[in-house]
Amino acid sequence: MAPAGSNPAAGAVASTLSDSEVVRRVRDGESALFEILMRRHNQRMYRVARSVVKNEDEVEDVMQQAYLSAFTHLHQFEERAQFSTWMTRITLNEAFARRRTLQRSASVAAAGRPESGQDHGAYSDTIRASQPDPERQAFAGELRKVLEDAVDALPDTYRTVFVLREIEGLSTAETADGLGLAEEAVKTRLYRARAMIRRAVTVRLGSVAAGAFEFRAPRCDRLVARALAVILGVHPGPERLLPGPH
What we know:
Number of strands: 0
CATH superfamily of the largest domain: RNA polymerase sigma factor, region 2, helix turn helix motif
CATH class of the largest domain: Mainly Alpha
Structural class: mainly alpha
Order of helices and strands: HHHHHHHHHHHHHH
Helix content: 55-70%
């Protein structure tokens, strides 16, 4: 993602501070520095949320709520763990909660429909996987789209494990910790997920996985601005956004 701002001093702060140092400064009252953490971890949190909730609008809502929850409970972060691991766990919890809510609403809606009727309601459009947007259409190469479709087609329990392990690069232990699973269960689900994806795609994952499900600059800026508006009680303009690893 391209830098969202042009403040060299702010950029220097963002590049030199570790996550733990940023967390300590935010705890000490420099709330605006939480933006650094959001920009550093937006890509992973997007992939994590999207592995659970595939609707793009819901994914951004999950991410925003996860960041607000993390900011509110930042005093609970223990520095013996990585901030990214802690943030991943929060995002997964938010995503699973959102999916349960969607599934309950879908069940209620289905119960109120005639069995022979076909649902054309707005809610079914909301929970259905969204059509490719302009950003997705701009992806370079047909294979990446094939990969994303194959991952989206995986059952929920396998898709999240596959995204965390193969696309985001978490270890088995980190994935197990984030999902509350035994490591053997993670290994089993990953094995089965791989088997469900066509061999032609799996063989070529090494060259394309790192670029799948990109969270591009305009969406990064929009999410950061929305979250900061709640955290700081202001609506930051482009001139105060810090550059990030976009």
